[in-house]
């Protein structure tokens, strides 16, 4: 049994959050997600994050990391090697594709692979135009004068 959330009341008092509401609606529709490979998402600073994935047995050449708009895609495909006959195969080596939804203005800084642990560093960079700014009340007046280039000004 699944209860759908109604976001209609939020639409009345918010502007520009359509994408967030769509993400929440889509998350409700997701069915059981494959839990392999295991991963952690760590907040390492105010605007810094790290995704750590356990990819034992995969080398750098077996992994592909791509950022498309607001989605980070990590793929792993191991080349088949025939070293001998396996009597027991407990180390998972199957291919995988894991997608992570990224917020606006989050970019991938770098990725590293060490001791079977893939680490992808992310950073949120809010543009200057979107940072809070103080608005003066009645401090400056708007002038309707046309702009002049320095060369066009007449010297008195």
From TrEMBL:
Membrane spanning residue stretches: none
Residues in the signal sequence: none
Presence of keyword Transport: no
Keyword Methyltransferase included in the entry's annotation: no
PROSITE patterns recorded: SHSP
Domain SHSP: 30-140
Keywords: Stress response
SUPFAM superfamilies according to UniProt: HSP20-like chaperones
InterPro entries in the cross-refs: A-crystallin/Hsp20_dom, ACD_IbpA/B, HSP20-like_chaperone
Similarity comment: family membership: Belongs to the small heat shock protein (HSP20) family.
Protein name (Swiss-Prot/TrEMBL): Hsp20 family protein
Organism: Endobacterium cereale
């Amino acid at each position: 049994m699944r209860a759908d959330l109604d976001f209609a009341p939020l639409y009345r008092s918010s502007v520009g959050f359509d994408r967030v509401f769509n993400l929440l609606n889509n998350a409700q529709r997701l069915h059981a997600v494959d839990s392999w490979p295991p991963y952690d998402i760590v907040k390492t600073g105010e605007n810094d994050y790290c995704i750590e994935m356990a990819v034992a047995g995969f080398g750098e050449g077996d992994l592909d990391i791509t950022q498309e708009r607001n989605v980070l895609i990590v793929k792993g495909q191991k080349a088949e090697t025939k070293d001998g006959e396996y009597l027991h195969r407990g180390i998972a080596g199957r291919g995988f594709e894991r997608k992570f939804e990224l917020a606006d203005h989050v970019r991938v800084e770098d990725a590293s692979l060490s001791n079977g642990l893939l680490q992808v560093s992310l950073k949120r960079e809010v543009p200057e135009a979107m940072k809070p700014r103080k608005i003066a009340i009645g401090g400056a007046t708007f002038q309707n004068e046309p702009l002049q280039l320095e060369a066009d000004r007449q010297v008195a």
